[in-house]
Amino acid sequence: MPALEVLGRRWYIGSDDLVFPSFFCILMRTFWVFILGSRFSSYLHSTSNKECNHPSLVLFYLATATALISLVLLLEILVMTLSMRGGIMQVEKRRAVPTLLHFRLFLFLLEIGLCVFGTYWCFVETGCDRDILISVRLVVISNWVLIALTLIGIIAVFDPFGGYHSDKSMNDKLWEKRFKSWCCCVGQQENSHGAFQDLARIFSSQFADVDLVASDIAVGLMIVSQQQHLAAQKRTDLHQMSFESECERYNFENRESRETFQDLTYFSSYALGAYGWPLFMYIHPITGCFNLCQECSLFGGGSDGSDNACHSNHIALKKLSGLEDNDILYTHFTSNIYSPAFYVAVDHNRQVIIVTIRGTLSLQDVITDMVCEPQEIPGSPGLRAHRGMVLSASNILAILEKDGVLERAFSLYPEFQLLILGHSLGAGTATILGFMLRHRYPSLRCFAYGPPGGLLSEDAAEESKKFVVSTVVNKEFATRLSINSIVQLRDSVLAAIQGNLRSKWKLTLDHILSVMRLRPIAEVLLNSEEEAPLILPTFDRAGEEEDQSEIPKLLPPGKIIFIHRNEIQAGCCSSYSGSHYDVLLAPNTVFDSIPVAPEMLTDHLPDTLVHLLKELQPIDISPGSHV
User: Are 261 and 581 a contacting pair, CB within 8 Å?
Assistant: First the structure.
């Protein structure tokens, strides 16, 4: 629903988001009223009240606190009741909520004042009855905790820029300010200003007319996820049927295909190594720190000074990839906007020089990912690709040329071939770097593990099949992520919110119950036949259809090996009893929609990919072993 307007500005919260916070406050204040009320009654009938230094102040505090907390309790009940009304888009049923919140703010200030007074009295006064002091101290301490939580909540939902603007140019500036504030820790880097402008233009054009808060989007994604799951169970999802029909089984009988899969498995651990110590600690949460510190050195960083003092990235690189010190020719562990981390190594078993580019691991990498407008690939006229990754590949190439890395490597190993690989952001950047270096190294190959979906134009994607092989695992989101798929998901979320008239709190509880297998998804999706009006701002949409038609369709690169999981359904109390994996050869055009499921994240993790490749590989071909 449109963002809540209180105190003359918009907030990152809706009027139907107050159910659970109000319920928690009601429980707390009911407890306080019971304690203070009972102590107030006992104090009135006590014969020892004169032992207090200021009995009139004690009586005033107990009476005032009981009355104020009771009033706040009634107001919280009213706010919760109104917040529970109507569906997400039925804002008119909750139109009194902002007025109540203004009154609630006034009482909040009175609560703070009373809490200050109570703190002074109960921690200074020592002459009163011990039970009264303990009770008041308990209420005061818990009240301060609740006040602190309330202030944290206010800060969390505060929109520093006031919210929505109907003017297009104002929206561009608003989004730019937002990105600068959200990414303030990035600092004033060389490319940051241009990146923020690019992001602002993209998000303003696609989301300027969507006035939803985070909880609306979350609930919409829940509904979409349930719809997708129900469709998959009934096998009525035409897109899924079309998807399966367009894929073909990977031919392991063919020698070239079998060797390609073996190479993908063999070199996959090199993509792991690029992530350094953070991924090593993720894979080895208990022993990781000890293993890294065991080999810790105090003599600076990597070959370009980009590692930390303990060489933890370099050590983790060796442990994850199986490389030795002599095999690592160059490391660049620093990542900036349009400049991801990478390293260069040599593999004597396969006689290749390897350039491995790291995937998304820092906020700078995320910014690079989101600058997704198409740009021409240098040296490849007419071929266009993801702008952020084109600039990243250009910067990596500039570093390699400046330091003469590849020239030195091939002077040492002139008979070796060049292999470029990476995972996620690294896969996309590796593909584009391959385009830039093909004319120098005609035998160049590229392995893209979990590549981004919105990477190459159709002709560039077709051209990439000559030297790129990609690997995609089941429901991973990155290969399906593009401007077009995000717009499609946005429209699905809006349609789900508009078409469902159930309250947000009911939808949230029902989703939790369905995840716990305590309620069928079909019942969760039951809805009224009546439709709520979709409330959107009056932003001029006249040119939006025109803009949408101009969005180019970008595709994942190369020949795509798709590892598809066939789930075997179990009973009601467990999700699945087993899985069977099919290795398919998929066309680039089928990854055009985003599945909303927990697996969309876990399937994209690099260790998941490496584990599956090795599991599906009948022989051991890890680095250091011979095939």
Answer: no
